[in-house]
Amino acid sequence: MPSSASEPNPATVRPLDGVRVLELGQLLAGPFAGCVLGYFGAEVIKVEPPGKGDPIRGWRLLDDNGTSFWWRSLGRNKKSITLNLQTDKGRGIARQLADRVDVLIENFRPGTMEKWGLGPEEVKTTNPGLIYARVSGYGQTGPYAERPGYASVCEGVGGFRYLNGFPGEAPVRPNLSLGDTLAGLHAVLGVLLAYIQRGKPAGGDGQVVDVAIYESVFNMLEAVVPEYDGAGLVRQPSGSTLTGIVPTNTYACRDGAYVVIGGNGNSIFQRLMRAAGRADMAEDPRFAENAGRVEHEREIDAAITAWTAGLAAAEVLARLADASVPAGPIYTVADMLRDPHFHARGLFQQVEVDGQPLRIPALTPHLSATPGATTWPGPDVGAHNPEVLGGLLGLSDAELGALRDEGVI
């Protein structure tokens, strides 16, 4: 049976109510875009291959039924249907669905949709208003377009990996697929911009939203490009610090815990050093401005490190809170689930999967009048075949049975 929400909290009105999305592709970047759109009201029809469905259903930790916990979050609010896009009939049904939606999301390698007769030029002949969002490693054009582009590789090409790590050591990655998630968010942004344009009096038809994973990472590089072009500076990895801004670092405490301290504002720095018992440094004219603090970064960090090493993390944070200095702990997920602020902000939503409660993260931003909501968790494979293929496309039970026997659904 499909999973359901034990405590559904659908908003009366959500901003994307009435928008229908066809989600093709699998794994993370495109499906995350579909997840966000569905959270804020869009009807998302997810196409999966018959059988095991989207591979992400089997990734990482699995529940007792062999389905990943991740899928229950990523697949929330989606209507799962099955189509074998390797068959003519499967592609034909996908084309019928594409004619009945506002947005199509795909994240196959460039050229795949065209090979299947489902590219934007083909579909717009019958659905000119379609917003066609494409997520790939390197974009739809350029010499790298046809290369396979997983987030791990694109984070390197996009400049993120070079900056992430400690000087002289191998670049590292966080234990997350940041490139995929960033690309999904860029796809959402592009879809919403295209939707706004389409709705203007002279807005015209739909358009293609071309999102590349490496470019989504590239968008995060702040001043890296102009600093290089204007001054020839290649920004280097800096461990737990931030180049050119002092002090901002991670500091070890007596109890083995770490705290993050951001004391880089001029007055904040003075309050920080007084809290650390170094009023002399707070008043030192060498440290009055950020440029001077950057020049003397080692001296400043050594003083803060010596102070935090003598106190438990909770005491460090309490003293800095009293001094109005930005600081915080390094949280695990267990810490988040215990923290009252996370709960006060509604960052966890409880759903029910086969009679068992499961908490999944809410999605932000928070909208005061038309908030998003999780109506149901990621459903079973093909759970909505009768509703979508039968109801929306009008296929009879006999036709659905024949398609099932042929391996099309």
The description of the largest β-sheet is: 6 strands, parallel
Query: What is the overall silhouette?
Result: elongated
The CATH topology of the largest domain is given as Rossmann fold
The parts where pLDDT drops under 50 for at least 5 residues are 1-11
Q: Can you give keywords for this protein?
A:
409 residues, 11 strands, six-stranded parallel beta sheet
How does this model look, in words?
- It is built from 19 helices and eleven strands.
- The protein is an alpha/beta fold and 409 residues long.
- Helix 1 (29-39) packs across helix 8.
- The strands form three sheets. Strands 3-2-1-4-5-6 form a six-stranded parallel sheet, sandwiched between helices. The protein has a three-stranded antiparallel sheet with strand order 7-8-9, covered by helices on one side. Strands 10-11 form a two-stranded antiparallel sheet.
- 37% of the residues lie in helices and 13% in strands.
- The longest helix has 21 residues, at 178-198.
- The chain folds into two domains: 20-220 and 342-405, Rossmann fold, CATH 3.40.50; 248-252 and 258-329, formyl-coa transferase, domain 3.
Short description:
The chain has 409 residues and is α/β, with parallel strands linked by helices. The protein contains 19 helices and 11 strands. Helix content is 37%, strand content 13%.
Please give the structural blueprint.
Blueprint: E1 20-23, H1 29-39, E2 43-48, H2 69-74, E3 78-82, H3 88-98, E4 103-106, H4 112-115, H5 120-123, E5 131-136, H6 151-157, H7 160-163, H8 178-198, E6 208-212, H9 213-218, H10 224-231, E7 248-252, E8 258-262, H11 266-275, H12 279-282, H13 290-295, H14 297-308, H15 313-322, E9 327-329, H16 333-338, H17 340-344, E10 348-353, E11 356-361, H18 385-392, H19 397-405
Parallel strand pairs: 1-2, 1-4, 2-3, 4-5, 5-6
Antiparallel strand pairs: 7-8, 8-9, 10-11
Helix pairs in contact: 1-8
